[in-house]
Design brief:
4 strands, two-stranded antiparallel ribbon, 13 helices, mainly alpha, 55% helix, binds zinc ion
């Protein structure tokens, strides 16, 4: 595919898509029914549906029997840790292998022309972005994710929190499933603004921002405190009436879904003439410019707070003007 049919490349070789990046039309005034209908498939495809299916697969084949989970034990907890680790390795590894090791589509649709593996940086363990990210993903992200999972499943199994069943309350649970990405966006925006405050940025969030040119393994490359905050949203399912399947979906949405902003390519080519949009541009701009696009545009928080960057040269100019105005 010729990516110049879809965007432009600057003299450094960095590619940006044509047109303006817009927040989802879901929450807008006046209401835009036609725009919402047109946008709706992208709400489910490809990502939300994929994570719903992965949660179902977990429920069917991986999550232990309730009688096993009634007792906290290392056995099933470590088994879940191992399976989550393998799943993360395969999922992120697939993007990494195809796009960054085999470089199957070269730099076509790639926002930053450079590949992180070609550059060393002292910011990272062993000066390597990938090694640093792998250590943080498997040493901190997956264990913290699994700890939340074990705790929540155990509380459901013991009856300590209400377990709403799909047979009795299908519409409530379906409605909850539909709004979970919106709740994720709200939670993500809130914790993200919090960790951009000077103290927490310096000691916590700067780790994630070391990846100025993010690649799939950057997705879970965070300080453990950020992992704790990031995965804590799953605790929602022990605070409100819910179902363990939705808690697993929420964890997959956070754990696997982080790839969405970090894949580094606007489209992932699937053969000669087909490419799947990655929806990565808004968060890529956050990694590039730090002070824009704190949320992903599902809810237009950045528009409301004046930090939206639409990816155009005009967006660059507006950001520069905001920075100048903020100078003492
Ligand atoms: Zn990021
Ligand atoms: Zn940030």
């Amino acid at each position: 595919m010729d990516d110049l049919d879809y965007g432009t490349r600057d003299k450094r070789g960095d590619w940006r898509p044509n047109g303006k990046l817009k927040p989802a039309p879901l929450i807008a005034w006046p209401v835009q029914p036609l725009a919402i209908l047109k946008w709706l498939p992208s709400y489910f495809l490809p990502w939300n549906l994929a994570f719903a299916l992965s949660a179902l697969a977990y429920w069917q084949w991986i999550i232990p029997e309730v009688s096993v989970m009634q007792k906290l034990s290392w056995g099933w907890a470590l088994q879940l840790l191992l399976i989550n680790s393998i799943a993360v390795f395969l999922f992120y590894g697939a993007f990494e292998c195809r796009l960054y090791i085999a470089r199957a589509q070269g730099a076509r649709f790639k926002y930053n022309a450079k590949f992180p593996a070609d550059q060393k940086s002292r910011a990272f363990f062993f000066q390597r972005q990938n090694i640093d990210s792998l250590i943080r993903a498997f040493g901190s992200a997956v264990p913290i994710w699994t700890a939340f999972e074990v705790l929540i499943l155990h509380l459901y199994a013991t009856g300590a929190v209400p377990w709403v069943s799909f047979s009795e309350n299908p519409w409530y649970l379906f409605g909850l499933f539909l709004v979970l990405p919106l709740i994720h966006e709200l939670h993500f925006f809130a914790i993200h603004r919090l960790i951009h405050t000077p103290f927490l940025y310096k000691w916590v969030h700067s780790v994630h921002h070391n990846s100025v040119n993010p690649s799939p393994w950057s997705s879970l490359s965070m300080h453990p405190v950020e992992h704790l905050l990031y995965f804590s949203l799953a605790l929602l399912h022990i605070l409100i009436p819910s179902n363990p399947l939705l808690a697993i979906y929420q964890l997959h949405f956070s754990g696997f879904g982080a790839v969405v902003g970090h894949v580094g390519f606007d489209r992932v080519e699937m053969g000669e003439n087909k490419a799947i949009p990655s929806h990565a541009f808004a968060h890529y701009l956050h990694h590039k410019y730090f002070e824009v696009n704190y949320a992903d545009g599902l809810i237009p928080f950045d528009k409301w707070f004046g930090t939206w960057h639409d990816g155009t040269p005009e967006g660059d100019a507006q950001m520069q003007a905001r920075r100048r105005a903020a100078l003492p």
